[in-house]
Design goal:
The complex is a heterodimer of chains A (244) and B (159). With 244 residues, chain A is mostly helical. Chain A is built from nine helices and no strands. The model of chain A has no long low-confidence stretch (mean pLDDT 91). The chains are: A mainly alpha (244), B alpha+beta (159).
């Protein structure tokens, strides 16, 4: 198990293993996103109060979930890099930040579009909305910090520390709706209770969430691969891959 | 690189990582505790009734619009209604303007405005708060009809 882990840690084996994984992951992402989107946007029932604007949920919820999962993955990669100095962890951290930032932006924009007809406002300084905006700035901070530092080593360490400091924001986003009075509604799902929506709504949502995860990992792996090729462009194995 | 017992310098770095997360969490927690009041978007009816909300200051009030409390003016857009927490506290609200589509009795709202010394909340913005329950219109109809059948007859189920 550890051995396999080590193997994955070297850029070369990661490149070769991901070669086999990518087509499956990409196909799953495409299939699930198409099925989920058509199901959610055309066939799922409207809501008794929100009407058809409830369908924004099929984009908004997966984007928000991925925005937070992405940050957790980035911080974990940062911790691994700080402790074990595995090059691949640094590459993974660098490649996930813009992806996470885009998903956070998507979550904020779709939420805003839903908020106007439902709440009557595009934006409120509510704890859930504000902490999600902070998440976007944390992502952008990681991107900016990396491009500001010249040496890869110190850039990697500095961004890892910034990512770790920002981890505290994740429980704040998650529990903001329970800790404080917010405009944003509390979660409709929990591990212990029945979902607060019928299956014909949460099933397409689940498909979309899994589809977003597959899409996220596909894009992430693609980005990591191109970064590996760039960083290792002088080595023999890259020339071998390029030549074949 | 070998696993097994962790090498001392790595264990040290692991502790540094732990310390970073711990310290930043502690710092943010302290800030949150200091800000506690201000992080809440609105005052609940209970807080307003107890006099915890400042009078004649721009604040937000949130609660459920009580059933049967909405009175619309016949001459302009003024609407009077009562928000409550469904327990005891009730706050009368007066608002002139266009209400959001989701505004209805029994639904949560967040209003921004000033509390008069008489205890009336004069709002200049009313937002509808959506709860976490989602359902198709047909299901909502069925539930509403079941309620109607239940209440006057005083017995459950039978039609």
């Amino acid at each position: 198990m550890w051995r396999w882990f080590h193997k994955l840690g070297s850029p070369r084996s990661f490149y070769l293993i991901s070669n086999r994984l990518l087509p499956w992951l990409g196909a799953a992402a495409g299939l699930l996103l198409v099925v989920g989107a058509v199901w959610g946007l055309l066939f799922a029932p409207p809501d008794y109060q929100q009407g058809n604007s409830v369908r924004i949920m099929y984009i908004h919820v997966p984007a928000s979930i991925l925005a937070q999962s992405g940050y957790l993955l980035m911080a974990t990669a940062g911790a691994i890099y700080l402790i074990w100095r595995i090059k691949l962890a640094d590459i993974a951290m660098q490649c996930v930040a813009p992806l996470g930032a885009s998903l956070t932006f998507l979550a904020l924009v779709t939420g805003s579009i839903w908020g106007k007809p439902t709440w009557g406002t595009w934006w409120q300084w509510d704890a859930r909305l504000t902490s999600t905006l902070v998440l976007l700035f944390l992502y952008l901070g990681v991107v900016a910090l990396r491009s500001a530092l010249e040496y890869r080593e110190s850039a990697g360490r500095a961004t890892a520390i910034l990512a770790l400091v920002g981890v505290v924001n994740l429980p704040i986003i998650k529990y903001s709706v329970d800790w404080w009075n917010t405009l944003h509604q509390p979660s409709s799902f929990s591990l212990t209770e029945k979902p607060a929506m019928p299956a014909e709504m949460w099933l397409p949502l689940l498909v979309m969430v899994i589809g977003f995860y597959c899409f996220f990992f596909t894009v992430w792996i693609l980005r990591i691969r191109s970064e590996i090729i760039q960083r290792e462009s002088g080595t023999e194995w890259v020339r071998g891959v390029a030549g074949s | 690189m070998k696993f097994g017992p962790m090498k001392p310098h790595r264990r040290q770095r692991l502790m540094v990582v732990g310390l970073i997360v711990l310290c930043s969490s502690a710092a943010v927690m302290l800030a949150m505790m200091a800000l506690e009041e201000n992080v809440n978007l609105f005052y609940s009816p209970n807080e307003i009734v107890k006099g915890e909300a400042p009078v004649d200051t721009m604040i937000r009030a949130g609660g459920m619009v009580l059933e049967g409390s909405v009175v619309r003016s016949e001459t302009d857009l003024t609407v009077d209604f009562v928000i409550g927490d469904l327990v005891a506290a009730e706050v009368p609200v007066r608002y002139t303007g266009i209400l959001p589509d989701l505004f209805r009795e029994g639904q949560g709202v967040v209003a921004r405005g000033r509390l008069t010394p008489e205890g009336v909340f004069v709002a200049d913005e009313v937002l509808a708060k959506h709860d976490e329950n989602y359902m198709p219109p047909e299901v909502a109809d069925v539930i509403a009809r079941a309620h109607e059948n239940e209440t006057p007859a005083g017995e459950s189920g039978g039609q």
